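Sequence dictates fold. Next comes a concrete instance:
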Amino acid sequence: MDNKLTEITSKKSYISWPVIALLDFVTVISFDDLIYNFKNQGLGVVTTWILMLVLFVVPYEMMVGNLGSAFSGDSGGLTSWVRETSGNTWGYICAWVYWISCLPYIVDVANSTLISFGWILTGNNSISKSMSNSTFALLTAAIFITFIFIQHRLKNSIKWLAIIGGSAMFIITVLYVMLTFVYLGTGNAPSTQPFNLKSFIPKLDLHYISTFSLVIFAMSGSEYVGPYISQMKDGKRDFPKAMWLLAIMTGFLTVLGSFSLGVFFNAHSLPHDLKMNGSYYAFEAMGNHFGLGKLFLYTFSITQAIYMMAQLAVLLDAGTRMFLSDTAKDYLPKALTKLDKRGLPINGYWLTAGICTFIMVLSATLPNMNDIFNQLLSLNGIISPYASCFVFSSFIILRFKDDKFNSEFRFINNRNLAIIAGIWCLTLTFSAATLGIIPADAKFGTTTWYHTLILNISEPLIMVAIGAILPIIAKYERRN
C-alpha cells in the first residue's frame, strides 16, 4: 500500500513556483495598466509607482506569501484564509465580495480581448469608432461563453495560456524599455517636454486622489493564485518565492515602462481614447520611429490577445473557485456547488458570465465605447481595492494569533511591526477605493459625469444585493 501511495504521489502533476508567479502576473499587472495610470497622472506616475512599490506592493505580496504559507493546504485561497481566521460567515462574505469584485474586471478583460482582435484584423482603431454599443456588448458576452467552453473542454488550458501570455507580455515590455534607451542613446529627444525632474513630481489635487484607486487596482490581485497553492509540491516554502518574483516583475514593468511612455508620448497632450487604444499607439509609434512600420504593433496585438485570454481564463476559474471551493455550503444554492467530471464549478462559471453580461449592458447606456471602457475600468478601481482589504484584515488577525497558526514564512518577524504594516495597507486601500467613486474621465458637471457617478454607485450595490440573495435561496432550499 505504501509503495502504491508513493507511486501515485510521484506521478501527481504539481505547479512550480515560477508558473505560479506567471499565473499571478497575468492578473496583477499588464502594459495596459501603465497606459491607464499614465493617462491619469502623466509622468508623475513614475514617482507614484516607485513609492507604491516600496510602501505597498512588497508588503502586500509578502502578506499574501505569509497567508499562503500558513494555509497552504486549503483550496479556496483567500476565502479559506478568512474562514480560518474569522469563521464561516466572514468566509462567505469574503468569497462573495471577491467574486463580485472580479466581475467588472472580467468584463474589462473581455472588452480588451475584443479590442486586441480588432487591431489584429484591421491594424488600426476603427473597431472603437465604428462598432455600436449593442454589438460591443454582444461580442463581449460571446467571449465569456467561448472561454467557459475552453476551460470546460481543454485540459491545462489555463496553465499554458498563463505561461505563454505572461512570458510574452513581460518579454515584449522589456523589449519596449530597451528600445526606448536605444532611441534616447541615438540623440532623439523625448516627446514630453520639459523632460526633467520636476515633470516626475505628481500634482497632488482632487483628480490625483480620485485616480489613486486605479494605481492600487493595477498592483493588486496576487491573492488570486491562492486556490492553486494546494497544487504546489511544497507550498509553504515555494509560494513566497513566487511572490518575490512577482514583486520584481511588477516593479520593472511599472517604473521603466511608464518612463518609456513619457519618451514616446507627450504627457501634456494625450489622445482622449488612450486608455482603450494607448498600448497599440505606443507600439505603433515605436515601429514608426525605427522604420519598421507596423511590425511592433502586430507583435504586441497578438501578445495582448494571448495575454488577455490568459487573464480571462485565470479570472473565470480562480474567482469562481474562490467563491465555491470551500465556502460554507449553507450559504450557497446547491446548483452552484455542482462540479463537472473535471472538478470544475460549471454552474458558477455560467452565473459569472451572466452577471458580467448584465454589468456590460448597464454600462452600455453611456454615449460611446470609449466612455463605456473608461467607466468599467473605474468600476474596477472601486470594487477591487475594497475586496483587497480582506487580505490585510486576514493578515492582521493571523499575526495577532501567531501562536495558533504555523507558517514557515513570516513577513516581518516582529508581530507588532507586522500588524502596523497590515493596518497601513488596509487604511490606504480602503480610502483609495472610496475616493475612486468620483469620475475621473468625464468633465465635472456634464451629463456623462453624473451618468458615470450613478453607475459607479449603483452597479456595486446591485452586485452586493445579488450576493445577499444567495444565502436566502440556500435557506429556502433547506426548508423545502
User: Anything to note?
Assistant: The radius of gyration is 22 Å. Residues 1-11 have pLDDT under 50 and may be disordered. The chain is about 75% helix and 0% strand.
